[in-house]
Amino acid sequence: MTSPEHESAVRRLDAGHVEQERLRERHTATIGTSAELRSYCRLGAAGEQVAARETWLRWVDEGRYRGLNAGPFELLAEQTLAERDQTRSERNREGQASSGLPDRTGRERDVSARRRDELSLLRDQIATDHDQEATDLDAKDDLSDRHTLRVEELRAHARAGRIRAGGDRDQAARGRAQAGRDRQQAALDREQAAFDREDAGTDELTGARRRGVGLKDLANEVSRARREGASLMAAYVDVDGLKSVNDEHGHAAGDELLKAVGGGLRRHMRSYDLLVRLGGDEFLCALPNVTPAKARQRFDGLRAELKDSVGGSVSVGFSELGDGDSLDAFVARADSDLLARRIG
Fold this sequence. Notes:
Elements: H1 4-31, H2 34-45, H3 49-61, H4 72-98, H5 106-138, H6 141-200, H7 211-228, E1 232-239, H8 242-249, H9 251-268, E2 274-279, E3 282-288, H10 292-309, E4 314-320, H11 327-343
């Protein structure tokens, strides 16, 4: 059963719809003179101001625009503004009337939708007439076609530009994806370069560092030991009888002996200890934070392993880094200790 408030709201909506029909008919009557308005605009655009003024006065005398002191364009603008205000007022009244209802019926929604459609059509018609009037003012009749063609050309150019922009965005996306792949490849290349640098500084026969890079690494170890106040031992290693093995059994046998010495040194040293092949049968080891007794114990184990595996041996001299030692003095003292042990 329909409540009194609901019936009152429906009556108000119907009354608003009737008023909206009246406004639309009034606007349609005004728009119906658009041919006369365009004639008036052409008179003004052609410089015939007297004829245009006489046309306007005749319209006023006929009562078409009685009480108005503005041209046809201002009249349409005022009517549009009045309709907009009327529409807003009606929407406010509709909201107030329906705010107390628990639910809006389908009929109310249909009425509101129909009115919004009608208002949209009126606004579209007003916008279309304004566009036509502006075109009539901007150019004479013989330039209208050219102007329209120019507008179409500009629109076509804009469409082509949007298509190109879409293609550019797609290309940019592909470029970003390729850039990501390039960055990944660059990271792999950097890793490979680091590996290559490391590999380039490694003696392929023994796995020890080559002399040039090895001595630089030893200088870094000396600097770190002094900076941290840590101890550092150097061991100068010489492979015994390598020349005799080469002469009697060939260089292949000598290489096998060097491989065995290099492998044994790495097994008896820690992963962060430094192993350098100085050349030929000479190696240099750097052992941080190791006492002289511990260092000698490590190389005693190496001698025993070499004797059991390949029947070879090594001579080892030691030195401990002092406060005033240079790199050369530090290494030379280990070499001197090796010679002294051989003589002794």
